[in-house]
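Late entry, evening session. Most of the bench is empty. Finally got around to the prediction I had been postponing all week. Sequence below, unchanged from the version circulated by S.P.
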Amino acid sequence: MGIPHKPETIEAHRARIDEATRPLWIVADVQQDVLKRGNAADTPGKHRRHVFDFEDGLRLIVSRDNLPMKLESINYDIVLHVSASFEKESPLWGMLSRDQKGFDRFCAIAAKRIGELLDAVVDEKPSLFTGKVAHWFLDE
């Protein structure tokens, strides 16, 4: 079982963002660990300091990552990686499963929260989308 959903205010999240971005995760090592140990692998999402939960069910996982590959839209090796998902049965639960408009709404909400958390302007279009998780790779 993962980390339980524990909503906090944006102020509480901001107070601990430095703790989430201090360690550098070597993504190639994390990927190897996932291949070897599957769900038992050590990932940022398994550490409370990287997890930021909101009342509406939104969960952001924030980490500072060294990417093992170059992505077309990314011009740097070390990124601030923010992934966005939502708790099952939460107010946001149905947004992705319905249609493209729902996905766009979810990404807009997530980008706005990421911007509030990091005090930055964040594009509503994620860098990558896997399953029901949207990922943003931001210049640190």
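Two things to note before I forget:
The beta strands are 24-26, 51-53, 58-66, 78-86, 128-130, 133-139.
The first strand starts at residue 24 and ends at 26.
Will write this up properly tomorrow.
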